[in-house]
Amino acid sequence: MKALEGVKILDMTHVQSGPTCTQLLAWFGADVIKVERPGVGDATRKQLVDVPGADSLYFTMLNHNKRSVTVNTKTERGKKILTRLIEECDVMVENFAPGALDRMGFSWENIQKINPRMIYASVKGFGPGDYSDCKVYENVAQCAGGSASTTGHLGDVPMVTGAQIGDSGTGLHLALGIVTALFHREHSGKGQRVECAMQDGVLNLCRVKLRDQQRLKAGPLKEYSQFSENILFGEATPRAGNDSGGGQPGRILKCKGWEKDPDAYTYFITQAAVWKNICDVIGKPEWKEDSEWATPEVRLPKLNEMFDAIEAWTMTKTKFEVMEICNPLNIPVGPILSMKELSEDENLRKTGTVVEVDHPERGKYLTVGNPIKLSDSPSEVVRSPLLGEHTDEILKDVIGLSDDEIAAAKEEGAV
Ligand code: COA
Predict the structure, then answer these.
(1) How does 344-355 read in b/e, with b if 16+ C-beta sit within 10 Å?
(2) Is 261 a known active-site residue?
C-alpha cells in the first residue's frame, strides 16, 4: 500500500504551482482528480506545443498519475457535481486568481459546510496585505520574494533563476501543509485551510539572504567577493554572483574546453578543513603554512587571487576530472551539468529521477520522476490524463451518477 493510498484529492489547480503539489501527492498514492473546464482544460495543455495536436510537455510533465474530469463549475449542474466531489474528497487544492473560487460560489465557509473534514489548500501570489488581489506568475514571485534582488552580478540587473522556486517551490511547501493537515485531522477529526503565498515560499528559500541583511549591521560581508575587491556595501544584501551562500568561499571556475563548451565549468568550494589538500592539488604546497594564506581570515581579502590560482589548475582538467581528483580528497566540487547531460545520466535513470514515459498522443518523452524516495511507497510515473479521460468513471464511481444523469450533464455542457 502506498503512503497516501485512500486519500482523495480534488485537484482544481492549473499551470505549475498547484499541479506540482498535486503531482507529488499522486506519486505518493493519492487519488488525484483533476477538474478541468470542458473543451478547454488546463491552459498549459496547449502552451509551448512541440507536437501539433498533442498535450504539451508543459502539461504532461506536471500532471502525471492524475485522473481528469471535465466540469463546468459555472453551470448549475456543474456546481452540484462539484458539491458532490467536495463531499467525497479529503483535500481540495486550487491556485486560481484571488476570489475566483468565491465567485464560483465555493468560499471556504461554504466548503466547510459541505464537508467539515475537508482540507482546503490554496496557492496565491501574496498573503493578506496590499497585494493580496494580484495575479502572480513565477518570475513575479521570484522578484517579490527577494530572490531576484540577490541573484546576478554586482552592478548588473537583478536576475531570475532557472529553478522554478516561485511555482514548484510553493507547490512543495503546499504539499507539506496538506500532509500536515491530514495528520492533524487524524486527531482533531476536522479539516482546515492551508494557504501558501508564493512570495512567502520564495522568501523562505532565500532565508540566508535575510540572514545577510541583518549581518550587514555588524560590518561588511567578508565572504562576498565584493569585500575582497574593496567595494563598499550598501544598505541591502547585494547580488553576489556565484559566491557561495555559506561561510566557505566558493566560485564557478573554468575547466578544460570552456572556450567552446558553455557548461565546461566546475563549482569549487574552498572548505577550510581541506585547505591543505587544495594547496597540494593546485600546486601551491607553500601556501599550506604561509601565514598570508593558511587561515580563512587571511584569505578572505584575497579571494580573486586565490580563485585565479585554483582556476589555473581547473582549466587544465575537464569538469569530471576535477570531480574525480577532488572528491577522494574531500574537496567539495561539482560539475556544471547541462540539461542534456542530466537527461542522459545513467544514475538518474536508475533511481527513477529521470523517467521515460509513453503517451498516446505524443509518444515517448522524458520527465523528472519523484525526487523524494520512500522505501515502502515507491512511485512509478504514470502518463498524464487526456482532457476528460476519466469523466464518466469519476462521475459514476466517485459520486454515483447514473448513466442518464451523465448523459444529461453532457447534453447541457456541464461536463
Ligand atoms: N469551469 C468553469 N470556470 C472555470 C473552471 C471550470 N472548471 N476552471 C476555472 N474557471 C474559471 C475561473 O472561475 C475564472 O473565472 P472568473 O475570472 O470569472 O472568476 C477563470 O476560469 C480564470 O481563472 P484564473 O485563475 O483567473 O486564471 P487566469 O488564467 O486569468 O490567471 C494565474 C492565471 C496563474 C495568473 C492566476 O490563476 C493566479 O494568480 N493564481 C494564483 C497564483 C498562482 O498559482 N500563480 C502561479 C501559477 S503557476
Answers:
(1) eeeebeeebbbb
(2) no
CATH fold for domain 8-205+343-411: Rossmann fold (3.40.50)
Q: Cell numbers at residue 190, please? A: 476536522
Position 245 pLDDT exceeds 90: no
Tell me the CA–centroid distance for residue 17 and ligand 1, in Å: 12
Active-site option among 31, 55, 167, 243: 167
> 179 alpha carbon to ligand 1 midpoint, in Å?
24
Mutational test site, ligand 1, from 10, 47, 135, max ligand atoms within 8 Å of CB: 135
CA distance 270 to 1: 46
Query: In the structure, what pLDDT confidence band is assigned to residue 53 with cuts at 50, 70 and 90?
Result: very high
Q: Report the phi/psi class of residue 210: left, alpha or beta, with left for phi > 0 and alpha for psi in -120 to 50.
A: alpha
Top CATH class of 241-331 equals alpha beta
Phi/psi-derived region of residue 366, left when phi > 0, alpha when psi is between -120 and 50, beta in every other case: beta
Where exactly are the structural domains of the chain?
Answer: 8-205+343-411, 241-331
pLDDT band, very low/low/confident/very high, at 16 (cuts 50, 70, 90): very high
- Using 50, 70 and 90 to split pLDDT, how confident is the model at 247? confident
Q: Ligand 1 pocket by C-beta < 6 Å: which residues? A: 15-18, 35-37, 43, 71-74, 95-97, 100, 103-104, 123-125, 135-137, 167
Ligand 1 centroid, distance to 73 Cα (angstroms): 12
Residue minimizing CA distance to atom 46 of ligand 1:
137
Going by alpha carbons, the residue nearest to atom 31 of ligand 1 is 97
Average pLDDT rounded to a whole number, residues 120-144:
97
Q: What is the 97 CA–ligand 1 centroid distance (Å)?
A: 5
- For every residue of 355-395, which 3-state class applies, written as one string? EEEEECCCEEEEEECCCCCCCCCCCCCCCCCCCCCCHHHHH
